[in-house]
Amino acid sequence: MWKSITGRITLIAVLTAVSIIVLLPSLTDRLPAWWKDSMPKINLGLDLQGGVFLRLQVEIDKAIENTTMRYADDARAVCREKALPVLAFQKVGDDGFSLRFPPGDFATRAQATLKEEFPSLDVSLGEVKADGATVIARMKPAEIQAIRTNAVVQGVETIRNRIDQFGVREPQIIAEGDDRIVVQLPGVKDQQRAIELVGKTALLEFKLVDEGASVDEALKGNIPEDDQLLYQKSTDPQSGRVTKTPMVVKKRALLTGDTIKTAKVNFGNQGGGAHVSLSFDTRGAKVFDRVTAENVKRRLAIVLDDTIYSAPVIQERISGGEAQITGNFTPEEASDLAIVLRAGSLPAPVKVIQNVSIGPSLGLDSIQKGVRAALIGALLVVVFMAFYYRFAGMVADFALVFNILFLLSGMAAFSATLTLPGIAGIILAIGMAVDSNVLIFERIREEIRAKKSVRAAIDAGYDKAFWTVVDSHVTTLITALILFQFGTGPIKGFAVTLSMGVAINLFTALVCTKVVFDYLNAKKPMQALSI
Amino acid sequence: MIELVKNTKIDFMGLKKYAFSFSAMLVILGIVGTVQIYRGKANLGIDLAGGTEIQVKFQKPFAMDRIRALLAKAGHGDATLQQVSGENILFLKLRALGKQDEKMVADPVVTLLRQSLPDNPFVVESVSEIGPAIGHKLRKDAELAMLVSALAIILYLAWRFEFKFGVAAAIATFHDIFSIVGIFWVLGIEMDLLFITALLTIGGYSLTDTVVVFDRIRENIRLRKKVTFSETINLSVNEVLSRTIVTSMTVFIAVVTLLVFGGLVLHNFALALAMGIVVGTYSSVFVASPVVAIWRGEKMTEVKR
Fold first, then answer.
1. Rounded to two decimals, what is the model's pTM?
2. pLDDT tens across A498-513, in order?
3. Is residue B283 assigned to a domain?
4. Which residues of chain B have a CB within 8 Å of the CB of A372?
5. Which residues on A lie below 8 Å from B203 (Cβ)?
6. Domain A200-358: CATH class, spelled out
7. Are B266 and B180 in the same domain?
8. pLDDT at res. B98
9. DSSP class of A510
10. Could you write out the three-class secondary structure of B60-72?
11. What is the ipTM of this complex?
């Protein structure tokens, strides 16, 4: 097949036809659906189509600490119920706490009670002194491991739920390593909103307001042991000014957001803006019913991520399992709040450690600049070759067209991602593509100067330059492949186009050009070659 | 036949004294630059050092002084501002302070600008924030990539050529990379991940010319065209001079197009590539071959493989 001219021409023709069929859907929308939809397409990177790339650090230690603190609060509540007086409380590392009891059998009784109530804690007796004894509780290693794994796996799941409800085409949310999550949202326009939606912990808690405690004292730092100081933030819709009202609430949450069945946006009939209606599952409804019954006329603070949204007075027992969060929301804010409440809270808080947001207009601008640079670059190279090597140069240009066509269709076939550096890679590949032909043509010139016949010179030129061409390709390929391995996002795009371009060039520069010369030489050997 | 260079008989080996001094200067510059990078005294991009970059497009022309003052008041006195004239585009670069739990600042800065300049609305075209931890990771990845490619190239050359040729080619490649680092450092041009990408690409591409010359030297030794090794090198370099120049020129044309028309994101990348092509072509003639000659001596033993 390599010897036969018709064989090679057929091969090139078939490849060209296939390439055009594969590539066209990536270039134009005006194609029949059966064609358009059955072909893989070139993806545009975030830098070209706009969008958000986020790398999140999952703060697992904080999740462990939070869980421990929740256990500690619960443990103290249990002790209070069982009339076991806790003299002092202390944190022990991130995953444990100790409680001190007065002398007597209080500590031993507490140990037994806590052991029974909290199977995921290791409860042991600490030192016994004259003035009392301590009980030390630590989370079991299995429990810590579960939090660790869950923090990332559940985090990915939750973020995916939120994004799906927000509505992003083809989002990518993946865990990276042990404690990171990478979120890619192509085409997102409202980027700040998307980032907030992803990064919000969204831990919803219902806590009683401690009317007995003084806010002024709390602001000075004198907070009762079971209480905490939180702020209610409210934004004035006219001026945009944010006011913060301090409030002292009970530390212990009576109910949390994990019992929410649905959350949806409603608009009040008094024109007071949007609010979010919640309905609880059976368990949540039962708890809510009990809590409201026990605390009529007291204020219940609705707390999201340690910020109070509202703190209404409980007018009467609420049995239907429904609640409302009000707070001067804009429709977008209310909708996002409903989304995070439906999707649930993140098991551990996350911190954005990398954020790359590209606006759609910049992406479009980059495409236009990149494509223009590529066209001008290709044109200049083509003109240079035709000028310097005349007819042979035009043959090389002819091969260059195939090189670019095969490269683009190859990218489509693999659904490769085209980035701005990727376009740079194409331009560079164009410049390098004709190098192979330069090496061959210079060799042919030498052979012609050595008084060989045109046909023999061409054959010798291709023959002798072959290994030099291969060498020059391999060295470029090595670095391109390493860039592919280590590079991220846009740089990977560069490695893809450059390596594919250079690899394909081996075929186009050697086969596509040689077949032209062979064809011309087939009937009657050429007497002269314009090179 | 158009020929850029024709039947040259330049005594390249005779020029090696000057070439070596020039190259030594470039390489020393590069080594100093590299040391400065590690000491944190170079203009590193935020993807390597951590930090925040914001690009906004205003509706009307704006005063840089005003914005600089606003940022300084908000505690960002070290911000680097850059303006694209005619397009009302502003680039802001804020350095990370190096603390692990550094807060992301893009949002507050954008809000600050929006509130302080109510009569000149703008669109945020891009935001890029990289925490120090990620900057550190990306830097480590880049170092590893450079190390692995250096090894891979040396291995390939050792397999394709005699050992001394392989080492000489590798020396020429490192010469190119250090030269570009040195020039960028002296000129204070920002070095980011794309710059590293350019360095690696140069590393791969500059070998092309070296390989072309070496192939010819190997051939000419076999053909016994000259008596001494130095003469063989001179002959070989002169023989392939036109293709060395033409191959570099086609790539140079492509890269300069990128430099001129590719926009700001690719500007420094294309600049590094363009410099790399020039230095790489120079080194394949003036560095790689003389190193082989000095090491190998004048014996005309055949090149293995």
1. 0.84
2. 999 999 999 998 999 9
3. yes
4. 261
5. 479
6. alpha beta
7. yes
8. 45
9. I
10. CCCCHHHHHHHHH
11. 0.90
Domain boundaries, chain A: 5-48+359-523, 64-142, 200-358
* pLDDT tens, chain B, 305 aa long: 777 777 788 888 888 889 999 999 999 999 999 999 888 888 888 888 888 889 998 888 888 888 888 888 888 878 888 887 778 888 888 876 544 445 667 888 888 888 888 888 888 888 988 887 788 888 888 888 888 888 888 888 888 888 888 888 889 989 999 999 999 999 999 999 899 999 989 988 888 888 889 889 888 988 887 888 888 999 999 999 998 999 999 999 999 999 999 888 899 999 999 999 999 999 999 999 899 888 888 777 776 65
Flag if B269 and A531 touch (Cβ within 8 Å): no
**CA gap B293, B304 in Å, rounded:** 15
The answer to whether residue B154 neighbours chain A at the CB level (below 8 Å) is no
The class of domain A64-142 in CATH terms is: alpha beta
Sheet holding A132-139, edge to edge: A88-92, A96-101, A132-139, A121-129
- Give yes or no: residues B55 and B199 share one domain: no
State whether B78 and B171 are in the same domain: no
| Structural domain harbouring B163 | 13-44+134-296
Interface probe, candidates A478, A499, A531, chain B, greatest B C-beta count within 10 A: A478
Mention the CATH class of domain A5-48+359-523: mainly alpha
CA distance B2 to chain A (A): 6
Residue B305 in domain: no
* C-beta atoms of B128 and A361 within 8 A: no
Q: What is the mean pLDDT of residues A49-53?
A: 91
Contacts of A463 in chain B (CB under 8 A): none
Asked if the Cβ–Cβ distance from B250 to A424 is below 8 Å, we say: no
> What is the number of domains present in chain B?
2
> Which positions in chain A touch B128 (Cβ < 8 Å)?
355-357
| A276 Cβ contact list (under 8 Å, min separation 6) | A263, A264, A265, A266, A324, A325, A329, A334, A337, A338, A341
Task: Give yes or no: residues B232 and B112 share one domain.
Answer: no
Q: Is residue B5 part of a domain?
A: no
The pLDDT value recorded for residue A428 is 93
Report the pLDDT value the prediction gives residue A1, as an integer from 0 to 100.
42
Between B141, B156, B253, which is nearest A486 by CB?
Answer: B141
SS (H, E, C) B217-244: HHHHHHHCCCCCHHHHHHHHHHHHHHHH
Residues B112 and B232 in one domain: no
Residue-wise pLDDT for B50-80, tens only, equals: 888 899 988 888 888 888 888 888 888 788 8
- What CATH number does residue B107 fall under? 3.30.70.100
Residues B250 and B182 in one domain: yes
In our burial notation (b when 16+ CB lie closer than 10 A, e otherwise), range B131-163 reads bbbbbebbbebbeebbebbbebbbebbbebbbe
Q: By C-alpha distance, which of A436, A334, A346 is closest to A385?
A: A436
Model confidence over A321-380: pLDDT tens digits?
888 887 777 888 888 888 888 888 888 889 888 899 998 888 888 899 999 999 999 999
